């Protein structure tokens, strides 16, 4: 933990110990040494409620960012002997979003008290974009494991994966598939040659084009019938 930093966490890091680590005792009171935004599960079960909470009014920008609730209060432990909970002011921001025609919510807990709820929503959204980028690296750039644990080795592997993915995209005109990266990996490690895998990749792409065209026709037909 470094002083003066802002930390963004997903649900796997929620907990009283994580929150406590962002404070230090100064002049007999707990003072933030760093800020945080943590995604929590909905209140209930293993996720605590925000006690003594006061509702904050929402601006048009807050509502446009999907914020449906902005409250300030404190966490209380139901098992005080087991959990150490600092008596510090916290903020709960609830965000709604649509996924596959279903309304879902994100609950964020933070000690950022002097910024708008919209800013907190944008902070978590930026964190999620980083998560999606790493998912893209693993799923589409085939960046599955580290071949080196040194900084220079990791950076080299990272840039090779990104450059290869972008060059393949520019050459094909569409996003390369994971199957293609697996085949290219065979060429890179010497298990196959480009001349051997090129016909396989062309046939694979032809089949994908047929599947995409068929799917587009089915969607158009379904839309026309409705």
UniProtKB/TrEMBL annotation:
<dbReference type="GO" id="GO:0004803">
    <property type="term" value="F:transposase activity"/>
</dbReference>
<feature type="region of interest" description="Disordered">
    <location>
        <begin position="206"/>
        <end position="226"/>
    </location>
</feature>
<keyword id="KW-0472">Membrane</keyword>
<keyword id="KW-0815">Transposition</keyword>
<dbReference type="InterPro" id="IPR012337">
    <property type="entry name" value="RNaseH-like_sf"/>
</dbReference>
<dbReference type="Pfam" id="PF01609">
    <property type="entry name" value="DDE_Tnp_1"/>
</dbReference>
<dbReference type="GO" id="GO:0003677">
    <property type="term" value="F:DNA binding"/>
</dbReference>
<keyword id="KW-0233">DNA recombination</keyword>
<feature type="compositionally biased region" description="Basic residues">
    <location>
        <begin position="215"/>
        <end position="226"/>
    </location>
</feature>
<feature type="domain" description="Transposase IS4-like">
    <location>
        <begin position="5"/>
        <end position="166"/>
    </location>
</feature>
<keyword id="KW-0812">Transmembrane</keyword>
<keyword id="KW-1133">Transmembrane helix</keyword>
<feature type="transmembrane region" description="Helical">
    <location>
        <begin position="153"/>
        <end position="172"/>
    </location>
</feature>
<dbReference type="InterPro" id="IPR047952">
    <property type="entry name" value="Transpos_IS4"/>
</dbReference>
<keyword id="KW-0238">DNA-binding</keyword>
<protein>
    <submittedName>
        <fullName>Probable transposase</fullName>
    </submittedName>
</protein>
<comment type="similarity">
    <text>Belongs to the transposase 11 family.</text>
</comment>
<dbReference type="InterPro" id="IPR002559">
    <property type="entry name" value="Transposase_11"/>
</dbReference>
<dbReference type="GO" id="GO:0006313">
    <property type="term" value="P:DNA transposition"/>
</dbReference>
């Amino acid at each position: 933990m470094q002083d003066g930093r802002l930390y963004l966490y997903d649900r796997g890091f929620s907990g009283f110990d994580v929150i406590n680590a962002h404070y230090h005792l100064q002049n007999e009171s707990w003072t933030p040494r760093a800020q945080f935004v943590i995604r929590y599960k909905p209140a209930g079960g293993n996720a605590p409620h925000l006690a003594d909470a006061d509702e904050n009014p929402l601006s048009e920008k807050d509502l446009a960012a999907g914020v449906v609730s902005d409250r300030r209060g404190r966490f209380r432990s139901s098992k005080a002997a087991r959990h150490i909970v600092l008596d510090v002011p916290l903020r709960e921001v609830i965000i709604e979003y649509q996924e596959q025609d279903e309304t879902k919510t994100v609950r964020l807990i933070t000690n950022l008290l002097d910024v708008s709820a919209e800013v907190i929503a944008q902070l978590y959204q930026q964190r999620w974009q980083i998560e999606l980028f790493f998912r893209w690296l693993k799923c589409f750039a085939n960046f599955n494991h580290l071949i080196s644990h040194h900084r220079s080795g990791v950076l080299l592997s990272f840039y090779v994966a990104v450059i290869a993915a972008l060059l393949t995209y520019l050459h094909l005109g569409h996003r390369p598939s994971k199957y293609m990266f697996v085949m290219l990996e065979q060429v890179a490690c010497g298990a196959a040659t480009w001349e051997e895998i090129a016909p396989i990749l062309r046939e694979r792409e032809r089949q994908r084009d047929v599947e995409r065209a068929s799917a587009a026709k089915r969607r158009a037909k379904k839309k026309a019938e409705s």
